[in-house]
Amino acid sequence: MWGIHALAVLVVVVTVAAGWWQWTVSQGHKSDKSDELAHATPVALSKLMGNNDPFPGQDTGRPTLLQGTWVPSGTVYVSGHQGGYWVATPLAIGSSADAPAMYVVRGWVAEPKDAPAPPTGAARLVGWAQPPEDSGLTDDNTSDDILPELNISDAMSRVKQDLYSGYAVVADRDSGWPAADAPLNDGTAGLKAAQVNAQPKASFTTGLRNLLYALEWWVFTLLAIYFWWRYVRDATSPASAEDAENEPQEDAVPSGS
Predict the structure, then answer these.
(1) Is residue 113 predicted with pLDDT exceeding 90?
(2) What domain range is 64 assigned to?
(3) CA geometry: angle at 24 spanning 23 and 25, to 5°?
(4) Would the pTM of this model clear 0.90, i.e. be above it?
């Protein structure tokens, strides 16, 4: 039965490979869409959320235009990022330094002592909106400026004003963004670029057709295995062997007398 075994292996290999290829195409579409959303035209923070609103999860990673005044006294260093520390400073949104603020991750350094002085004055920048970090880590030393994660509840004790329920990571300048969104005093001088925790998520329908094709090919894989198993089982079962023995034989041709 080597022939049927070889055919089964060939069909399984082809259908699995075809399904895998369709799945990778589907994931590629999702990745491309996510990258497109991450570099879409920035929107004003006021269109994304208010200072008392919960973070809009569907807008995670969206480019957001932030404009306001730095609050240098609220600068914190968040450990465990890129082999060093994030450097985050609150930006009071609006014209008043006492206005509700959003923490902005300006970049990262290997050690807090390596960080430049926090920025001051007015600023305008584009940041990728991010939900607060909340993995359950606790700040064992509230007297210093080092946090185990950028949890807004923990950071509230560092400032006198209200805080937005999320934070932003300073975004690289994108050639497609409007000239009016050009950074102004974005606080990145002397820091290495920080990486975002969460990218925008493409909708479920993105790449759906290729995903369905992948599932279809893998169904063919299961069917091929099933038919191979049935054929081998039927061909090697005792009942099949007995039927073969009991088949009527053709009458022998009588020899001439």
Answers:
(1) yes
(2) 41-181
(3) 90
(4) no
